[in-house]
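Z., the sequence and structure:
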Amino acid sequence: MLLPSPQISKLVVQTKTAIAIPSVTQFAHYSQQQRHVSVAVPNSVASSTVSSSTSSPLIDFNNTKELYRTRSITNLVSSYVTLKSCQLSLLARWGPTLLEAGGPVSALGAKLTYFRYFCGGESLEDASIQEAINYCAKDGMKVILDYSVEGANSDKRADEINQVILNSIYFSEKENAKAGAERLSFGVVKMTGIIDCKVLEKLSEIICYEQVHQVEKSMLPNSLHIESYHNKMNFRTPAFSFANKKPTPLNDDELAQLDRTLQRLDKLCQASKTTGVPLLVDAEHSYYQPAIDQMFMLMCLRYNEQGKHPVVYNTYQMYLKDAFQRLQYDREFAKARGIDLGCKLVRGAYMKLENERSRGFSLPSPINPSIEATHTSYNNGVQYALQNIHQMAVVIATHNQNTVVQSADWIVNRYGIPRENRRVQFAQLYGMGDSLSLALSLSGFNISKYVPFGPLNEVLPYLSRRLIENSDVMGGATNDIQRTEKEIKRRMFIR
């Protein structure tokens, strides 16, 4: 999609003189008419920066001519302007707050700018969703459609959200059949979209209590019980304090809600098995995660099989102190029961909130004490999955260039895994990590872009997180900015 020629001329002149950022008005109009790529998952809280010139024998980030060969100058300027604007101090300081607050002004501003950059559209029927799929396919990248809506406040709303996710799985199947190739690689469910957060937290509290206390009779509902699973995971970082009380069992209404939630999740997994479009279960806050892990393992035992591509994957936030142990535990538990484990590895997205909550409850922080510790945890997770690839499948979801380069080396040189092996995928978020995604695709690796969609007012929290991530000049967005600028200058003969 192109801008009217006068606008292109203005932006080209500005770029040629100093790669200057347009005015807010120009930027809003410009971004509204642009669609580009980039996406994937979840994310790099502890993203270390590698020099934008750093490459490896397997992946070349230096040749921007080849890297951006399918991108027009208009696309490149749009990407540069959007990412650079995220780093403006005023926007970085107040943008996330305004987005979280919502309201008509925030919604309009987001719709004209960042929504069109970081999201695919508001519904599966939007033409922009198809544009995103085609745009990624042009560069050899697959798409993961993610209905980025959370906070189900009623059964009716949870059913509605679940139906959209179900539709996205069948939509993916149809697109793949139409293309005669896998263009959409996964479906995604965020559990807070299909169950009340309070029930998740209450279930998690019960699970955590029974992991550290001997109980004669479990308070966990029979529908969630898995023999020797939750009560053996006693290495979890405490998310609750049991100094003065023990949790109470779910009441009748909560039990009924849990049963309906398991029916929803089962319906999604059944669709994933039928269509061949696997389901990613997103990670959440540490005080919801025990219940999510329990539901995942229930579906894993029901739908995953040995020697076959996993139907359902769990997400492990490797910035959590206990993440690597949980990954190992889940793999051993699955192996002992003759099934394969699917995992998506991310660094994590809720650090500020997690630390504030742990301080408020006088609990140890669940987050690793340093960036280095998180890098180590993440790398350990990648290696563990790769060395057990015959019983596991892994999505390496990261915007960290060091991790991408190191993982590619391990895949090819250490473990001898074919680059096209479907059990190993990379992923980045739509609108982020573009240079990594393009380089991985050019090098023959499986790469997917995480394309969020949903009603504008309901995906504002997601956009808020993207602004925060891109405002960090030490983050991966800096590499994209530098490489995009380099290619713009090359095309315009600027030295």
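The domain at 39-60+136-456 is CATH 3.20.20.220 (TIM Barrel). The chain has 19 helices and eight strands.

Let me know what you think.
H.
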